[in-house]
Amino acid sequence: MKILISADMEGATGVTWPADVLPGSEQWQRCRHMFTSDVNAAIAGFFDGGADQVLVNEAHWTMRNLLLEQLDERAEMLTGRHKDLSMVEGVQHGDVDGIAFVGYHTGAGTEGVLAHTYLANSITGVWVNGEPASEGRLNALVVAEYGVPVVLVTGDDRTGEDARGYAPRARTVAVKEYVSRYAAVCRPPARTAADIRAAAKEAAALAVRHEPERAGPFRVEVEFDAVHLAGAAAVVPGVALTGERRVAYASPTMYEGIRAFKAVTTLVSAAVEEQYG
Fold this sequence. Notes:
This protein is 30% helix and 24% strand. It is of the alpha/beta class and 277 residues long. Helix 1 links the parallel strand 1 and strand 2. The longest helix has 23 residues. The termini are far apart.
């Protein structure tokens, strides 16, 4: 049994505001330890449940946040940026039996601690075939095309609610309770580690590859907080303006859909001006 862990940081234990996840800040250095603790708990739980291999794919910002020197020595870690499938890189090789979303969060325009979709601000909503789409939903649609089930999701309590919409069988762990976008009732890492480990052990039983899903075509809509950002996104071939601040594109598969989404967000990031967005 091989498990892939996609590790994001906004949904990690103790994380509640931007400095906690901004590479280079003092708070980020502190929160890296709790982030690594969450991932280690998941690794231990999956091995408790019978896993033979665990690969951790770093999925936050620079994708260089986890502390390798503190990682469970039984696991391996894929770190760094510029990967074909970004947050779920590694799922495409046909040897992954289940995937865990550790440290995930809710999507742009919704309630949740540090809620966003790919870009910290700028994007105010994403929809796939009319359904609101968090990073979790987007990535779940991608891995389904490789026959890999989402078996575990950790983050705040709103993230667990979101996961029930795209991975209803997955085990979920709330490491904190949402109060506002920048506030939460947090549990200490010793408690959250125990909860994550127990859930991962149960989740291992769900790690069974199935027939790849062909749910396309997909219509992806993205809304921005400024008119010029929608214009920047529409430079991508196949992406069309559908409103002053909204674009849409069609994709036969979510593999192609997520790659187009990456192109859109890269261009939009380059078009953001300091202070005014």
